[in-house]
Amino acid sequence: MIRNVLSIAGSDPSGGAGIQADLKTFSACGVYGMAVLTALTAQNTQGVSGVHLVPPSFVARQIEAVFADIRVDAVKIGMVASAGIAEAVADALAPHPNLPVVLDPVMVAKGGASLLDPDAVAALVERLLPLATIITPNLPEAAALIGVPVAETRAQMAEQARQLRTAGAHAVLLKGGHLGGNDSPDVFSSQTELEWLEGPRIATASTHGTGCTLSSALSASLARGMPPVGAAQAAKAYLAGAIVDAERLSVGSGHGPVHHFHQFWQQS
20 to 30 A Cα–Cα from 193, which one of 12, 80, 162, 255? Predict the structure, then answer.
């Protein structure tokens, strides 16, 4: 049976991040993708020039319409943008407590534009964090969520992952791409497990939408029944391949997108 995965996130008209990246990733990972829009953005590979939020009540209406008709096997939450939208998403998902939920706390775009209002951080922590099967912050996002300096060592990463679980997350996949050095380690932390997901740092400017892509691949693997650590490992491997093959694309002049269909498109 083909699984159905719902993304709740913002739109990226350039196709590299947000809903567009999520749907590509779902397809590449063998699940049927659905999308609830929280925001429209004006952006490209060079940055974000505008954001237009969807009213919270209409975000909720989209979610309710999907659940009223379609079996949902997992949910990925990306850009929520405002406290009102975070509250609406939490309320709409409350009647469905047993679903795998991946929360990607999108705060800042690659070009530096803020994608989350400051007052929305508290709502995200209080309402969405407890719903998350796994939360997938990068180091600056994790630091902002728990109000500490950005981690600079593996020991600090592990401690901040623990603090995020104390704040309400069931499990954490903390991404270490912002650490210095030749490696890009992530740490998976749950109540019973602490595991490092190793990987080399890939020298590339094609990093647009990497967080969206990882969290969507993770959601797809959870929907297909993989255990959390295995799902995290599969998602990291998929993203690594998409980054390595990104040079096959010719999209924009800034932070280019990853190659979501690297496994399927022939070399050209």
Answer: 80
